[in-house]
Amino acid sequence: MDAELQAAFNTCIDAGINWFDTADSYGTGKLAGQSEKLLGKFIREYPGASKRDDIRVATKFAPYPFRIGEGSMRQACQETLDRLERPVLDVAQLHWPPSLGWQEAAYLRALAGLRAEGRVREIGLSNYGPRGLRRVHAALAAAGAPLASNQVQFSLISRLPLESGLVDAARELGVTPIAYSPLGLGLLTGKYGMGGKAGGSGGAAAALPPPPGPRGFLFRSLLPQLAPLLGTLAAVADARRKTCSQVAVNWTMCKGAVPIVGVKSAAQAREAAGALGWRLSAAEVEELDAAARRCRVQAQQNIFQTD
pLDDT for 185-226, tens place per residue? Predict the structure, then answer.
């Protein structure tokens, strides 16, 4: 799909999106590091040189048990830069809290050192809860390095960052939350249903059946319970002349987060870009919050996400 993905990437840039997130663990075996390699290729082959210079890349380093000591994190960073063919990484994120907890301090020292040397511009986390966030923030502050971001599963049906106090802690510490899965694996797109109509900006279209496989099993279980929330989402989308997806993504932005939306085609890139340039009102956010609380559906949390 490289050509289709290049077109999706180009559409993102043309629409004003210049920040891309990846990870060194995206791609295994013969495709090890493939996501970073492709992203580097897409950047180099984008036709506009001036916009190309404004592109920012964030990646995540997996705290594998075999990555021991500061040197292992430095090596991981260099391997990423080689795959991207870039001299500097804009945001270096620890992908999840290491199972070997004593390794965390070594990883943080390495990231702080890389930032001081100019090889990394900002340091971020992923899948850290409020207690871990405060611990790492304090450790990096002692090393003279600020913590820029924390990437967590966050959507209308993944509300743990709100309920755990993570969003409040991030605001207090000046750390930007990054929301992954803002569409709840597609449940919040308004495109799927158990029969009937799809919602949001032209909701007369027939709803798509749940996708095949394990995801479809999950959808068939959750969609009936989500019906009231999806109805509210569709009503707000119609009033705004937006899609359900765009409203769901904009909701995360209204909560102070930077959302990550996965796109595989130019059409999906244009859809994602439609979430930019406007904001839901406080009343609309509260209406969506209330609907989400009433339906009491919570997506399964990533097993790597901690407190």
Answer: 899 999 887 555 566 664 446 688 888 888 787 888 888 889
H-run or E-run covering 258: strand 258-259
- Tell me how far apart the alpha carbons of residues 181 and 265 are, in angstroms, rounded to a whole number: 17
Q: Comparing C-alpha atoms, which of 86, 93, 137 is closest to residue 111?
A: 93
Contact predicate 32/67, CB 8 Å: no
Which residues are catalytically annotated? Answer: 26
CA distance 263 to 149: 22
Cα torsion 162, 165, 169, 175: sign: negative
For residues 141-179, one letter each, b for 16 or more C-beta atoms within 10 angstroms of the residue's C-beta and e for the rest, the string is eebebebbbbbbbbbbbbbbbeebbbbebbeebebbbbb
Domains and CATH numbers, the chain: 2-188+256-277 (3.20.20.100)
3-class secondary-structure state, position 209 = coil
User: pLDDT digit string (tens) for 68-80?
Assistant: 999 999 999 999 9
Lowest-pLDDT range, 124-138, 184-198, 214-228, 261-275?
184-198
